[in-house]
Amino acid sequence: MQQTVYLEPDKFYHVYTRGNNKESIFKEEENYFYFLQLFRKYVAPFADTYAYCLLPNHIHFLIQVKPEEQLKVIKVDSEGMLQIDLQRQFSHLFNSYTKAINNRYNRTGSLFQKRFKRKEVTSEVYFTRLIHYIHFNPQHHGLIDDFSDWPFSSYHSLLSKSKTLLRRENVLAWFGGRDWYRKFHEESAAEFNSIAPLIEDDDL
């Protein structure tokens, strides 16, 4: 039996998964918004989100699990021990969304592949390139000519001044401000193919 690898407090992870047998996860626009609502319910209380992108048959998130001290405040057992299992929170998210989609579209069975992927982000270069990689994905997969026109990613939310659960100020400060954040995305398109194999271990 394969041992579960838990998402550890304080660490950064690239979390991604796809539809079972590459099936579409999102059938229409309202599905994307509903999925994000469930993400806010099940995952956001336990992890900070730095970037995301939702595509028709797969998803990407860059998250940082909250520090253990904050997680203890969120949920503790009778002895004050940490009980949050973020792996389970993601399972709740995927199961809840699958149930809604099955009811809405009269389908049965699993919607997502059995185990979602997660890779720890272990360097500053990886963190920087991963944000661009996530945002550039729709263009990479030929869904749109300009990645910045894709409506279901964090690219524009990070540029906007509207209220958000994203760690916007942290991301913009990392890139040196809005202008440098935008410029980095515009100038890094040619480097996508060189970093993609380092980020994904299968064809999404």
Describe this protein's structure.
This is Transposase. InterPro entries: Transposase_17 (IPR002686), Transposase_17_sf (IPR036515). The protein is an alpha+beta fold and 204 residues long. It has a single domain, classed as Alpha-Beta Plaits. The protein has eight helices and four strands; from the N terminus they run βαββααβααααα. The chain has a four-stranded antiparallel β-sheet. The radius of gyration is 17 Å and the shape is globular.
SSE topology:
Blueprint lengths: L11 E7 L10 H14 L4 E9 L2 E8 L2 H7 L11 H20 L11 E4 L3 H17 L14 H5 L8 H8 L2 H10 L4 H8 L5
Antiparallel strand pairs: 1-3, 1-4, 2-3
Helix pairs in contact: 1-3, 4-8, 6-7
Offer a concise description of the structure.
The chain has 204 residues and is of the alpha+beta class.
The N- and C-terminal alpha carbons lie at a distance of: 25 Å
How many runs of DSSP E, i.e. beta strands?
Answer: 4
What's the CATH class label?
Alpha Beta
**Proportion of β residues?**
5-15%
Rounded radius of gyration (Å) = 17 Å
Low-confidence stretches: none
Name the CATH superfamily classification.
Answer: Transposase IS200-like
Q: Regarding quaternary structure, how should these chains be classified?
A: single chain
Stated plainly, the CATH topology is called Alpha-Beta Plaits
Query: What's the arrangement of strands in the largest beta sheet?
Result: 2-3-1-4
**What is the second-level CATH architecture?**
2-Layer Sandwich
What is the overall pLDDT average?
A: 87
Order of helices and strands: EHEEHHEHHHHH
Structure characteristics:
alpha+beta, globular, Alpha-Beta Plaits, 4-stranded antiparallel sheet, 44% helix
